[in-house]
Amino acid sequence: MITRRWSAALLCGLFAAFMAGTLTTGAVADETTPDSQEGPPPRVDLVLDVSGSMRERDMSDGQSRMAAAQQAFNEVIDAVPDEVYLGIRTLGATYPGDDVEVGCQDSEQLYPVGPVDRTEAKTAVATLRPTGWTPIGLALRGANEDLGDEEGTRRVVLITDGEDSCGDPDPCVVARELAASGTNLVVDTLGLTLDDAVREQLSCIAEATGGTYTAVQDAGQLGDRLNQLVRRADLPVEEPTDVAGAEECQDAPQLGVGVYNDRAVFGEHRWYRVAVQPGQELRASVSVAADREVNPDYGVLLRAVDERGRELTRGTGAGSGRTDVVSTGLRYPVPQEEDEDGDGESTADGASGDSGDGEGNGEAGVRYVCLDVGDSFSAPDAVQREPGLPVELTVDVVSAPGEPGDVAAFGLARGWVPLVLLTGAGLVAGLAWGLLARLGTAIGRAS
């Protein structure tokens, strides 16, 4: 009996492996891998603080901050993927004096962004000695120039042990300017001390650009985190499209399915338009990031409005205290019958009546839904209003529930085939588990 059960379990295991292999093969065949993608190489600029404080020997492994950074840089240079373009910029590396004007201009490119000559890059890093000031804002602007304006992933990794010692330009203001420039630049920050003021400034820089802040205390941690960030630049990402919302619905830009970036001043409403056909469902979500100090109690509003100004549906989100992002979303299914007024005139073919605008108004079956994005953020008088708060808007249009081809969420598989395969795999796994349990019981009794 045991032998027969072993055989049954083995056969089920082989069948389960076959099913899993089929699913995996199908997934691989349909999925585009990074190696198969063509495009501009990802670019990373490492910005290293070489100010006088970097000579402090307070790392947990007994090294100076400078020695820990140099060791970590060497590890990253050895491990950087061939397809990643890497560069190095310094701040505070050349001027040891007390002249503020001179010291606050001390930032230069140590190694240009491009294919890495490992020997040359490591030799350049070995020459660095803790020297001068900490002009972080200036260095961020320089790093943005180092990366160029070509399309593709652009990442800056800032490594420092202190705050900006110059104040002009303010690093947080620079980070917001870079984030608003439309170049999709991400700045990650690494702090070599646990000082609260350093953490606050580095967090501000990272949050403004969608990056991360990490505190590190030895060369090992620094090297591991640097490697993670450099390798992350090689991952394919969906770049959001920059768009400028209008002040009114009739002037709003028309959006298709995708992810969009915009900026909104405190309390401002931004309008966008989406074309939807009867029998489809519009799904939209919006996130507004508080990338600077704001007053408590705030909210974000997303409304779907027809071209006659009638509200169709809305979503709201609110927060109080320190919250990085506030989000909300909505879903609006467009009915098959659009004669809502009983006047015999369909609103599906351009309800507002403004034809001839070159954007498809008047096309049979097309209805334009306007999206109104508003917020109730406010801030102390000393906080800058420009550039506005980062807004990310996601738009999807699918078949309405109950219609062929409906999907449950963005990016999920469509159709019944994946469901059948997953159900079959689950059934096989359940049978195999039952057989193994019975086999274990039989062995226990036999022993």
How is this structure best summarized?
With 447 residues, the chain is of the alpha/beta class.
Please explain how this structure is put together.
The chain has 447 residues and is an alpha/beta fold. The protein has three domains: 2-26 and 416-446; 43-232, Rossmann fold; 241-399, Jelly Rolls (Sandwich), CATH 2.60.120. It is 31% helix and 26% strand. It has helices at residues 2-30, 65-79, 100-103, 118-126, 136-147, 171-180, 196-209, 219-232, 417-446, and strands at residues 43-49, 85-91, 107-114, 154-160, 185-191, 213-215, 241-242, 254-255, 258-264, 269-276, 280-289, 298-306, 311-319, 325-333, 367-375, 389-399. Strand 4 (154-160), helix 6 (171-180) and strand 5 form a beta-alpha-beta unit. Helix 6 packs parallel to helix 7 (196-209).
